[in-house]
Design brief:
mainly alpha
Length: 210
């Protein structure tokens, strides 16, 4: 049983850091499993993986774990610095009070919520112009190969429609303009375009091939 603030904060901090590391370990476990599943076929099947919700979900898990550990270590460092300062003044570590326990509980909740919030912000539709990496098209559509980003889309639209102001082109506008480039007689491109979310970038999506 913890009797001093120092011992309680150390145990709570270690618990939060362990939880964050466990989340990241869970991410690595699933990445390893999918590495075995895809194997050498990943390069040809990467479009399906990078646009799947599961890829984004694993990205949220890994990012939440990383930020949870980082925030927890930061708070522990601040508290330890204060304890070292108290020790230098020959002051003993104060005992636990209900007020401190409440503050520590609220701080832990804030750390967990903040870590999770930071990890899911890239998936909010309101912020897609900042975090979407590109679009994935039907392989039969030769005009867009790979995962073209906004700059490549703007270059193509500029060549097709004339000079365009890039700052006014959101992803929604780009999708609409691209749709107007193709005839709807054969279905157009509607339903053939998939979004490469923030967690579909090469750093996370290709982790299984490294």
């Amino acid at each position: 049983q913890c009797k001093t603030i120092r011992s309680l904060t150390n145990k709570v901090g270690v618990l939060l850091i362990s939880s964050g590391d466990s989340l990241f370990g869970l991410y690595l476990f699933f990445i390893s499993a999918y590495d075995l599943y895809y194997g050498e076929k990943f390069c040809t099947l990467q479009a399906g993986w990078r646009t799947r919700n599961l890829c984004s979900f694993l990205g949220v898990i890994s990012t939440s774990g990383s930020f949870l550990s980082m925030f927890s270590m930061t708070i522990m460092s601040v508290i330890r610095f204060r304890e070292i300062r108290r020790s230098s003044l020959l002051l003993s570590s104060p005992t636990i009070t209900k007020v401190f326990a409440m503050k520590l509980t609220l701080t832990c909740l804030l750390v967990v919520v903040l870590a999770f919030l930071v990890s899911i912000i890239p998936l909010f539709r309101n912020f897609e112009d900042f975090f979407i990496n590109g679009l994935s098209y039907n392989p039969e559509l030769r005009l867009f190969i790979g995962f073209p980003d906004k700059a490549k889309h703007i270059a193509i639209l500029d060549a097709y429609n004339g000079r365009m102001k890039a700052s006014l082109l959101s992803w929604d506008v780009i999708k609409n303009l691209i749709g107007e480039m193709f005839s709807t007689d054969y279905g157009g491109v509607a339903g053939q375009v998939k979004t490469v979310e923030f967690y579909g970038n090469s750093a996370l999506a290709f982790s299984s091939t490294l």
